[in-house]
Amino acid sequence: MIDTASLSYLFGMGAASPVTAALTIGAGTHNFGGKLSGSARAVNNAGAGGTDGLYYSSEDTDVALLPSDSTLFYVSVDSLRDLLTRADYTSYGTIDLTAADNAQGQARIANRDPATGAPGASTYANLSLTSITARVGAPVPEPATWAMMVTGFAVAGVALRRRRVSARVRFA
């Protein structure tokens, strides 16, 4: 977390698989899983007179206009109120928004050609949000922890194997 007198950023880095989103318009919902890439970012500026912002992007192969394409999905949300400091980051929860929160956003969907990497024409939608739901996943050991554990077992196995000395019996 970067925290100064004028602004505050919450950020993290990791694999794309935990970065997911669900876009619901009317009765239709599509889940974006970020199978190729994904990022999520939160900016906490409302306490300093700015705006809070939530930014999400993912690249998915589930939905595309052409079978070889992937879909780029971007969502950004801004609010004039301080949404991020009242959020509970340790459990699943929903923040219900009021008209005073003035939460507005934009969604952008585009296809990307895998051969050239160029995105195609984009489709935009303006959003007026009524709630934000945050889900916290179960804690999982980091890959480095697993790697150290497996390496430790391997080293212990090699050490035990080397200790075995063949015993010979000699008669005089």
TrEMBL record:
Transmembrane segments: 143-160
Domain of life of the native organism: Bacteria
InterPro entries associated with the record: Ice-binding_C
Domain Ice-binding protein C-terminal: 139-163
Entries under Pfam families matching the protein: PEP-CTERM (PF07589)
UniProt keywords, alphabetically: Membrane, Signal, Transmembrane, Transmembrane helix
Position of the signal peptide: 1-21
NCBIfam families hit by this protein: PEP_CTERM, PEPxxWA-CTERM
Protein name, UniProt field: Ice-binding protein C-terminal domain-containing protein
